[in-house]
Design brief:
The chain is globular and about 70 Å long. The protein has a two-stranded antiparallel sheet. A hairpin with a 2-residue loop joins strand 1 and strand 2. The chain has six helices and two strands, in the order ββαααααα. The longest helix has 30 residues, at about 70-100. The chain starts with a strand and ends in a 7-residue tail after the last helix. The protein has about 200 residues and is an all-alpha fold.
Length: about 200
């Protein structure tokens, strides 16, 4: 538009990318469920790594858009999820597979220390998601419950027998994330509540 020799540019806001990030999160949760519950074993690690690397790309994009839009809690969580859970997790799955098949297993104790930091951070950031309690808060709370189990198991503080408990909690978190992603897309498209939230 041009008015009095001044050109104004109308820009359209970006859509909320959170549903895509939640789908990537759900894929990771379901993959970890399969691994931690014993439904898949070492031969699945490289393929799981590929799925996590795909999630890294999605969650990094979501983080950037969320942070640009001023979503400090969601943007930062997606940012560290993309880097540590997705990118690092994906690469680790491939390295662990290589280590096991080459009969040179890696010391996963280091994972426990990293998971412990991520658990503490997520738990400390959780109150930011209470501002508007909803399904996303439930996803965060379930993840808060699962991550310390994984961390303490990797550290040897808890026995590996807690892995199936963490698996089921992650399956729950992933399931809620699937529903929330669907509700955000469908309700946002129609501009009204189709799926209750």
């Amino acid at each position: 538009m041009e008015k009095n020799n001044v050109v104004t540019v109308q820009t359209k806001e970006w859509a909320n990318p959170t549903p895509a990030g939640l789908v990537a999160f759900a894929v990771a949760c379901f993959c970890f469920f399969a691994l931690l519950s014993g439904r898949v074993g070492v031969p699945a690690l490289p393929l799981m790594g590929c799925w996590l690397l795909g999630g890294f790309i999605i969650q990094l994009v979501v983080a950037i858009v969320d942070l640009k839009g001023g979503n400090i809690a969601g943007g930062n969580v997606f940012c560290f999820f993309s880097g540590f859970f997705m990118l690092t997790g994906g690469l680790e799955m491939m390295l662990k597979y290589r280590g096991v098949t080459a009969d040179a297993p890696l010391d996963a104790t280091i994972d426990g220390f990293a998971w412990l930091v991520l658990s503490i951070i997520l738990i400390l950031w959780t109150p930011a998601f209470f501002k508007k309690f909803g399904l996303l808060t439930i996803v965060i709370l379930l993840t808060d419950a699962a991550l310390p189990l994984i961390a303490f198991s990797d550290l040897g503080v808890l026995p590996k027998t807690v892995s199936p408990i963490a698996a089921w909690i992650l399956l729950g978190a992933g399931s809620v994330a699937i529903y929330l992603a669907s509700a955000l897309v469908v309700n946002g498209t129609f501009g009204k509540k189709i799926y209750p939230m």
